[in-house]
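Run folding on both entries below.
>entry_1
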Amino acid sequence: MRQVTVAAAFIVDGSDRMLACRRSDGDQAGFWELPGGKVEPGETPEQACVREVREELSCDLESLWALEHVEHDYPDFHLSMDVFCARIAAGQEPVSSVHDELRWLSRDELMDVAWLPADVDLMRNLQTWWGAIFEEH
């Protein structure tokens, strides 16, 4: 089975919310995801996360730290995803060129959107860790 290695950002703000992005095209259009994308050859997952967020949301990240690792089998590939917690650089607002909607979600709203299959268990775990994530950062 083909393996796809990606890096994604769990972007938090100063008011206990995280950024969710709805895919606008492809087989998974309409599902929600964390911003991010494929790790290119010679690139670390951290570098890929920063680059992908800059490309997708036209903003820079700060305070990047490892949060979780996800392995998930889709019908035609295996996903290996490193997830990093981060904040958007001061004074910047995300504007997506690849998603049709961005939404800041609170802990109570986290499961109100249709997440990609690989993200569902991650979001359930993040609900449990929510307080620790926001206390620490």
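>entry_2
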Amino acid sequence: MLKNLSPLLSGALLSALDAMQDGDTLTLVGSGYPEEALTSPIVHLGEDVTTEAAAEAILSVFPLDTADPSPIVFLDLAAEPYEVPDVAFAVNGIASDAELRRIPMTRLDLEPFVALAQRSAVIVRVGSDAPPCAFLFRRGAL
């Protein structure tokens, strides 16, 4: 184990993150995400890992894009313009803390989200979430 590195950051995940190029996307999904939509390499973090814990571990080493006005996209299943899932608020706070700046997020419906997610460099899958949630993180330069 490396010092000050989250135990959730396995060798497989660190290798996948290191292989990503600037502008590539990482998709973080819970178990409720449609299986048939997963086309990129998948790193499983475990059934007991929450989306928030995975986001905190990933964003501790993963730089978000500074050129993109919204480097995080989240899957919106609520279909209510003023309703944001608690997990989206939490991930936004984690990202803002990791980047030491406010991180805007964009919401997408299922079809456009899946279209973007299918072009991700890597998919990180975590345990069960209710309601189903998913995020895209766009990588920036170090």
